[in-house]
Amino acid sequence: MPDTTSKITFSDNNSTFNSAGVQFIINPYDEIALSKAVELAEGGKGTVTVLHVGDASSEATIRKALAVGADEAVRVDAPARDAWFVANQIATYAKDQNFDLILTGRESIDYNGTQVPAFVAELLSIPSVSIAKKIDISDSSATVEREIEGGKEILTTSLPLVVGTAEGVAEAKIPNMRGIMTARTKPLNVIPAVEVASLSAIKSYETPAPRSTVKLIDKDNVAQLVELLHSEAKVI
Amino acid sequence: MSVLVYIENVEGTFKKSAFEAVSYAKAVADLAGQDIIALSIGQVEESELNKIGTYGVSNVVTVNTDQLGQFVNQAYASVIAEVAKSKNASTVILSNTFSGKGLAPRIAAKLSAALGAAATALPTVDGNKWQIKRTVFSSKAIATEELSADKRVISLSPNAFEVKENPVSVSVENFQPNVAGSDLSTVIKDIVRATDKVSLPEAEIVVSAGRGLKGPENWGMVEELAEILGAATACSKPVSDAGWRPHSEHVGQTGIAVSPNLYIAIGISGAIQHLAGVSASKTIVVINKDPEAPFFKVADYGIVGDAFEVIPQLIEAFKAYKNS
Ligand SMILES: Cc1cc2nc3c(=O)[nH]c(=O)nc-3n(C[C@H](O)[C@H](O)[C@H](O)COP(=O)(O)OP(=O)(O)OC[C@H]3O[C@@H](n4cnc5c(N)ncnc54)[C@H](O)[C@@H]3O)c2cc1C
């Protein structure tokens, strides 16, 4: 993902995201997912596999995920075209691996789709929670707190399960020295992508129209703000 | 061919976002020259179902079996896809609520449909090529996405499309779905709703405060202002990280993205990650004691001043306005 402070620009007549000079980071929500996975597997309770869809330029980022504590990594060797494509790659790989839990971030901070977790779960015919605030796993079931408008819902569900993680699920873990050393020798398998028919594509981008300059109101005349919100902005 | 709109109920009632989806779907059906059918799942009284007619949709299908009394995304997605197939719907529309986000991809996969998630405007329709607009890069850009399959699922962002009245009378049809047991492995244990509060993602007015308020003990005036305006309360990330406010109030790139008609930011500097979640607001008011605070650059109205002096005066001014 482009770093959160990146200036977002487009080239080729506004049809392509301009990645020149942009610093790339792990999606902050994926960091939460990874940290939760490592936390759940701690003490020999399980193993964590990191899966990434992308080209070889992402390998340093994958090593970072291994340094945080994942046991092995898989890179599907293809650009992450869209959510449907990525979900198919994840589901195809996961199908015969017997994972108990598949964690993703709730959304990516570039395309903000919140599509991957439910797509993956549907492809595997298993339950899912797209935006989870808390996850507890016991032998064969999970208790998950998910966000709803104006509150939260607590549900239990069977494993295997797909969960999209939001803030609160886990504290982001920072790799330590030992992690960084061992990450170099952990397995990173590169596998080919499966073909997926393309059903949608982004054609162009535009940047939102800038707001007109701010109208300043004197702090001793706040009634003027109320008047402007009513008669000019028409929002009250 | 028809357009099917799924309308979500919350404990038997339809919220504003549900009627936005109905109004949007009606406009889409008119654009595409197709019939429109609305679908409600779960226990909803007839008087509530009749409200759908207010927004121009007369054919209402309800699925009201005991099994589906509570929301299970796998089962609900199966039912919506089943109804879509049985009604020959090539377009399914729903609201991009928290539940909608879990449903839309599943419905799309079941129907081999293209998914247009979080649409912010009416699509353009050219045969099987539909184009929608949605915000990307955390509201820093707007993308035009082409859906090129012969079916499509579109989820509508809350607060993006205005409800449009167009009253017709409603006829209700009961539908008996085939729900597989394997779709029902999720059980809801508890739902906790802050009933006295306005829900943040759907709120038309949001009063938000940041680290400038110094500590949780000072939120009384924020809540009072919100109450007068019928607004939801929100906060910046460091405020929820410090435990001054719950995480559910955190807006921004790593929190909730909001798009109210009015966003009032008090003692928030306007960091780019905060703006990412609020810049889609129609009108932004910033109150900050630092005239150089970056938030003023994206604000419509600003007051340079100490929140502890300005907010109490503002509360009085809004009270006077409400009473006038
Ligand atoms: C990866 C990443 C993701 C992030 N995601 C988010 C996010 O989703 N949401 C978010 O909010 N932040 C996010 N942040 C943090 C963000 O960068 C800022 O640090 C944060 O928004 C600052 O919060 P603030 O404005 O409340 O505090 P500050 O930046 O400390 O600003 C306080 C403001 O209050 C003003 N002030 C002080 N006293 C008064 C007074 N008496 N009256 C009036 N004004 C006063 C000050 O002038 C100042 O402008 C993220 C950061 C990173 C690195």
TrEMBL record, chain B:
Gene Ontology BP, a term: fatty acid beta-oxidation using acyl-CoA dehydrogenase
A GO term, aspect molecular function: electron transfer activity
Cross-referenced Pfam families: ETF (PF01012), ETF_alpha (PF00766)
Named cofactor requirement(s): FAD
InterPro entries to which the protein is assigned, alphabetical: DHS-like_NAD/FAD-binding_dom, ETF_a/b_N, ETF_a/FixB, ETF_asu_C, Rossmann-like_a/b/a_fold
Alphabetical list of SMART domains matching this protein: ETF (SM00893)
Binding, FAD: R211, G267, I268, S269, G270, A271, I272, Q273, H274, N288
Keywords attached to this entry: Electron transport, FAD, Flavoprotein, Transport
Record keyword Electron transport present: yes
Manner of cofactor binding, per the entry note: Binds 1 FAD per dimer.
Record keyword Electron transport present: yes
Family from the record: Belongs to the ETF alpha-subunit/FixB family.
Protein name: Electron transfer flavoprotein alpha subunit apoprotein
Organism field: Sphingobacterium psychroaquaticum
Source lineage: Bacteria, Pseudomonadati, Bacteroidota, Sphingobacteriia, Sphingobacteriales
